[in-house]
Records
---
Amino acid sequence: MNGAKAMMNEEALGWVIRTRDPEFADWEAFTAWLEADPAHAPAYDALMAADADLVRIIPAEPVVIAAPANDAGTRGWRWPRSLIGGGAVAAALVATLSIGMWNRSDIYTVTTRPGETRTVALDEGTHIELNGGTTMRFDRHDARFAALDSGEAAFTVRHDPADPFRVTVGNALFEDAGTVFNIVRTGTATRIGVSEGEVIYNPKAEAIALPAGRALTDDENGLRVMDIATDAVASWRQGRLSYANAPVTQISADIARSLGVRLTATPGAGAMRFTGTIRLDRDPARFFGQAAPLMGLSAVREGDGWLLKEGDGPPR
Amino acid sequence: MATGLSAIFLNNRPALLRFLRARGAGDESEDLLQDMWMKLEEKDLGPIADPLPYLYRMANNLMLDRYRSATRRERREQDWAEGAGGVMADPSEDIAVDERLVLNERLEEARAVLRSLGPRVEMVFRRFRLEGVGQRLIAEELGVSLTTVEKDLQKAYRAMIALKQKLDTE
């Protein structure tokens, strides 16, 4: 690139940044720059288009931790206190904002694609890890609130008896009592497992206390409370899924979310139950080759996804 | 439409026209202004704090949309010519596994680039680009000068656009 062109692009970049600022007002100066050379407008357009594409490659997470398997987040740096809570991500909102027409509200949405994980820090000592295929909402002005609309998230919560952390899931409310817990929301069914501390389910209604090692399921069969191994709670963060007598329909939803594959189960396979631990593997063929026999099932490719079916015979 | 805004539109019509011409709209500048006028008439906009910058921004967005649809058309025609079908992938849903892996790799790469710029630059960039916070406000939040924020943004943008161009040519 020759010097003059590089200089022009530098200037154009300056105008991209300036005009992108919601407070930008000096349009006359911008007009004058554009008029100075007919090549200025195309240079500006090209950089604005590049800018618009950036949202697709910017990993939208406020803190660090990509959070797969063994990432302890040691390289983490903290956001200044003043930004925590107010300054978390508005990841999913971004795509829908048209340039310059910001429509800010206190509530923002964070969405992960299937197979993608993300960590949102709400305050010192409180962070939420979103598994793949998950949609959550947060409040910029209330770091003690979160809503899980669909998918799965692990909550590590700083306990404050005066200001408990609350998660709404559908019509249900979970209130922490000093806690690490995991919630899954699929359709209208909700599952929660508690690995540390205690969570209260619907404190104003049923008020069911769930200490560490207890899990609650609320689905079309009603409300059930059961035991769960504490190290099985949110084990997707360590790259494994642990179950005690769980239906295969539930397991396949967990797999689809964690690996980002489309997965269905035949009615017969879906009705089966499984106890044990499945190790997640990013390579779907290798994963199903190991996981399906473990569940007494077989997995076959079907279109762009996979099908779990009964029997462990060779795929037909 | 708020009468205030229409009055401002009419008063500044020459300046807006001049802007559209400078922006490269050429002979279509008049038509674009007409489009803007129709849009303003359709929408029942409430009072707007800074009406003139609002109108300029609207004109600028029109030009950006035009540019985007023109390049998209070009790309589509090229795809067809190359026999690749003409289907534009919708990035939001159900992307194939391979594509997702590529996407994850790109996110990783972008993450590394952002991190290499240092925490303040990364934060300034995220605040500005992802959350739409203005430079003045960011400077206040961080207790640094406006110039520092501007420089941070230029640095981040340069790196990110260079990365994007690299990814596009891969």
Note: The CA atoms of residues 19 and 268 of chain A lie 59 Å apart.
---
Amino acid sequence: MDIFEEIRALSEKYPDRRGALLHALYVAQKDAGWLSQEALNTVSNALNLPQATVKGVATFYSMYKHRPMGRHLIQLCTNVACMIMGAESLVDFLKGKYGVEPGGTTGDGRFSLVIMECIGACDRAPAMLVDTDFHSDLTEDNIVEIIEEYK
Amino acid sequence: MIKVTIDGREVELENPVTVLEAAKQAGVIIPTLCYFEGLTPFGGCRLCLVEVEKLPRLQTSCTIMTADGMVVRTETDQIKAARRSILEFLLINHPLDCPFCDKAGECDLQDLVALYGPEAGRFAEGKRRHPESFDDPIIVRNMERCVLCTRCVRMCDGPQGAYAISVTGRGSHSFVEPFSGGKYNCEYCGNCLTVCPVGAIMSRLHRHSYRPWFVEKEIETVCGFCGVGCSMVLQMRENSIIRAIPRAGVGFNKGLLCVRGRFGYENVESEEQLTTPLMKVDGDLKPVSWEEAITFITESLKEIKDAFGGKAIGAVASGRCTNEDNYMLQKFIRFVLGSNNIDSSARNYYAPAEAYLERIFGQGITANLISGIANSDGVFVVGGDPTAINPILGLQIRASCRGGGKIIALGAPGGLKRFVAYELMPTPYSEEIILSAIVGRLLKGKALSGENTTVEAKLRSLKIPSDEDLGMTGISSEDIVRASDDLAGMATPVVVIGPDIIQRERASKNLARIFLLSERPNYQGVMDMGCLPDFLPGGRPVELEMFRHQIEGALGLKAPQDKGLTLFEMINEAETGGLKALYVMGENPLFNIPDSAKVKKALGNLDLLVVQDVHLTETSGIADVVLPATAWPEKEGTFTNLERRVQRVRKARRGRMASYGRDDWKIIADIAERFGMTKQYLRVEDVWEEITHVSALHTGLGYEDIAEGKAVWPYCGKPLRGMEGDFSVEGLDGLPRIRGSKKPYLMIERSLYHSGTFSRRSKALLSIYPEPYLMINPLLSERLGLAEGEKARISNERGVLELKVKLNEDVSDSQVFLSNTFEGAGAMGLIGFGIDSVIGSLYIKDNTVRVEKVRV
Amino acid sequence: MEKFLLKNIENPDSASLEEYQRVGGYKSLNKALQLEPSDIIAQVKAAGLRGRGGAGFPTGMKWDFASRDVKFPKYLICNADEGEPGTFKDRPILEKNPHLLIEGMAISAHALKSDRGYIYLRGEYPYARVVLEKAIEEAYAKGYLGDNIAGKGSGFHLSVHQGAGAYICGEETALIESIEGWRGQPRIKPPFPVNVGAWGMPTVVNNVETLANIPLIVAIGAEKYSAIGNPECPGPKLFSVSCCVETPGVYELPMGITLKEIIYDHAGGVRGGRKLKAVIPGGISAPVLPPDGVDCPMDFVNLPKRGSMLGSGAVMVFDDTVCMVKVCWRAMSFFEHESCGKCTPCREGTGWMRNILKRIEGGFGRDNDIELLQDISLSIIGKTFCPLGDGAAGVVLGFIKNFSDEFRYHITNKKCMVSKDL
Ligand SMILES: Cc1cc2nc3c(=O)[nH]c(=O)nc-3n(C[C@H](O)[C@H](O)[C@H](O)COP(=O)(O)O)c2cc1C
Ligand code: SF4
Ligand code: FES
């Protein structure tokens, strides 16, 4: 099923096709890891929603990306609990180790680093999501091990 | 009854309204920013906070509804402090660049800060930055100034229904985006400019060249672009228009304008305006004096009349001229020269369609109020995109949809794309079959009421297409059933008929309110004024003696008793030598009538061609005499819009060169005097006076009544022509043959951004739509190997054009579209025409074209 | 206390329908389907259940409003947005006990005569989505969801709607906007969702934990239920405990237990035996309490009396190594990031305060910054469109009230009071 069809099918879950928009944006983002104008247009066409409206919605939510991303997405939480448990030094560490700034992508395009608000893992802080996997109780040692799993 | 007390004043309310509205009624003004009358309430700016007794928090008066016994205070210290802090917040990210900002002087934020604001801000950090955007034609955006009231977005998604902009981003990083070069269906209506309270969305026309307080004069007039006739205000400085704006509360357009009305006025300031009469000397047009020109015209006409009779003379009236202009032309041709050969480009579709509908349903059938469309529960749109041809009428259809109305389109829905329940897209030229099938189905479903036997008899004689007939159209019988049932289910249906389908009309029940789209501001007036070969002023048939005598009596002049020639007949006659002189007022037949080559040949054959116009056009280029006339903002008089509302047009300027141009009616009256017309007209009011005596539709209607905006005819005029002595309607019992073609049909694009040739000198409109292009469907473009922006050659036996290609998914792949706007590249040139034998309208034929890629 | 909400979650298969049924799951649904909808609503009212999403609104009353509205269809939405920093209490239900939620929703739907439900799941919980979707599939297969639930005629359809990273979508009207596919900004109230909610229809939005309490109420009855914890707001409550404690985690304890008990008896006390400096009792939006606040019972009644609130029941414990200015700054940068931008004070005020806090934290504070912060907070409070902005301002006022010395120290000495090598 191509993306267009997949998005169309989603709208059946809602009394109004527009309800499927958030989900559709995830579908459109799935392959490239970000939403190009073309991807947004696909969503707009599939759901017959105005392009400007789709753009407005897509930019409201922080999990939709509007620039090309690395192959893997590291979403590191730095909210209060993670901050107290050392998330900030992990950010510095990643910068030193991989040369990646928050919001940036490694030179080889392997991963992008994004700072997150609370991801609901405060009891095992600091924590992060790599793509859709949770990793917690992070330290400088284990974070390298974890990241090395994602090529 | 709800009683509330606001700042000690009691107000009684019939229905619950917001506290803000109640306060207004009590004469209490509460400051607002995100509130705008007519837009959905938002409650975001928080400036309108008030105290309501018994409620713990301050409440936003724009959102809270009144309840009986409510006690409200709007100006306590607590409230003032709150407003001060809200304004301080708003200024955090606002650039304070009032000295450079065109909005200064009419900026809500500036005014509010002056009233409530802090003396000095305490914000010491850097402001958010966002570059000013010039991505769009006409509009410049400065989102650093934006206060996120979202009025523009609510306007765009609400009344305008263009959905071209949205707030993007979140929190203080939100920006309104993105018109960006028309990327998102921006219709450039500029209604966002009206609502923006600060200088975030501004016009690029006259940027940095004036301040609001430079406006010296404001003229309330009616837009000259199309037959809707929106009210607008022209703001003047030193005799030049600096801005056209709508005024809420004036006119039925309720503060809305379309791109043409708001930005198109510049075309009348064009350098190319004619400054002096021109006469052909040795094949070239040379400047001459008015006296020379008028004398020449008078003498030539006299000669022709003497030699061949009045019938050898014809005239073309104009949908862009006032009622007064057209009336005078009609009087001159008919009563002075003795010829009924007068017609206009309304003949292209508007006039015959109206005549046809009136022949079935009676006079006035298309006199319906535009504002009523929004309240209807369904609209059937046939043969044209109302949102492009008559944009403000189109908005009413969108509003009907938002209110739950069902919109059904026969043909491409265009700007109604997001509003139609569905569209029927038949193969070209089979619309009539579809309509007949729908009527057939309706007749089966609903027994005729028996109230109107004449109408019903006509309906019964209609040939109902068989399934086989339908097979050719690409529309299934299920679609017909669905559409018919939907139409039958509507309690207050509206039918909107556009220029692309003029012939038979669906005729279900008289319930339907019919609207004919009108490309020109005064097509209706042209007809009311008797600029028709078969009708006298007031819609009285020239052949009926009783009516003719009435008018002849009023004028003390005689008119010929036989029908005259239609526009197309005049062209045929000119070609064959029967017509010797043609007087053209404000029209460009050489460009605006199909088959330019034929028209050119015909007009070239005339002994005398007189053209009165504002600019040099294709037609005036081959004229014997050209007379400079005044343009729409220089005119005084009246237009009659498509709902038959007579409205005042007021003179705004004598522009740079316009002092050379004369009013059309005046020029003609001048010539008529030399023919012995004794009546003197000093002012335009004198012409109108006469009209009210001659036309039964306008009896007793003064300019003062018109100014009140209530002059929708028939008012206090004589009763309309009844159904008695009805005309027979022939040709109901046949169906058209569908002409299949491998080659695509060339169709006229009726763009939102242009209005025939009238707009081709407007810099603003040209900045959006700068050059002619061929609009084609992506499928067809693939077949032809033509990509967007590449050059295509289109040709048929009438000519060849080379144009850039533009892709458009919304058009069918058996058609290509080209506007009839640009010099040397008009669609009409390649289109052939025939004349319908039943209703005399033009029908398009032989308009297939070969499309190929131009190799460079 | 016997665990109900987190029952059996140590079991690796706890999320499966089979395992859930093995420990008694779906019995309440079967029981509820025998009852009249109005009886269930009456029971929930009598039980005194108050919403666990933060505001503590009586659930039975909300249901009553919705069921009195004559419009149909009615929607039931589970708020699984769990965005409040420090909160992770719904996560174990979503990931390990999904059938409890589904059962709770099916019962609620029956009570509300709703035939369509959505679980609004935050975008940050991708694993929960997998678990929930599988559980929903199982429930459909077993007839606990579908057109004819348990053969009793009433139907209920349920699906997951995943958010995409916007805290404000936890607010119920913003959540509804988001389900409908708009930018998640709060709506004007009234009308309230119980009358005009999703797609203009009566809609009940309840937190995960609230809905997870429903099977218990049906199982043991209102009377027994209301005997758990504080009678004014009874029932079991999930507390997420984090930051400087020995054993952070989610604890299911009776409502009204004191903070002290939670920290010291359940979460192992302050880490390394350090000194307690401050506690946030209800997630980052709840004003901070000084150490002497720990004797306060954790419920919707007592915390407000101490100037804070129960919120989502997220207990964040800070020891003496934590800089209060820094926590306050980080909290404000969260609010600034999450402000939806609809209303002026929150949109502009949070960013301004974040800037000031950042500068104080970085040693560039100015003399009157504390007063300025207080002033800005007071300019925000009571004037915002929704509680997010109010919350942000309240947080600043709370920190300043309890730790003004520390703020002042930062400003005068241009450095942190908490020594780095503590
Ligand atoms: C800014 C804001 C964020 C909220 N976030 C959540 C949330 O993440 N989860 C939640 O259940 N309720 C949240 N709420 C509360 C909801 O608005 C609503 O009160 C709740 O979902 C109702 O469910 P309950 O009655 O079961 O508590 C939030 C409220 C506000 C104002
Ligand atoms: S307080 Fe205002 S800006 Fe902030 S989240 Fe609520 S509505 Fe949005
Ligand atoms: S005018 Fe009421 S909140 Fe803006």
Note: Strands of chain C lie at 75-80, 116-121, 157-162, 203-207, 236-243, 249-254, 276-280, 314-319.
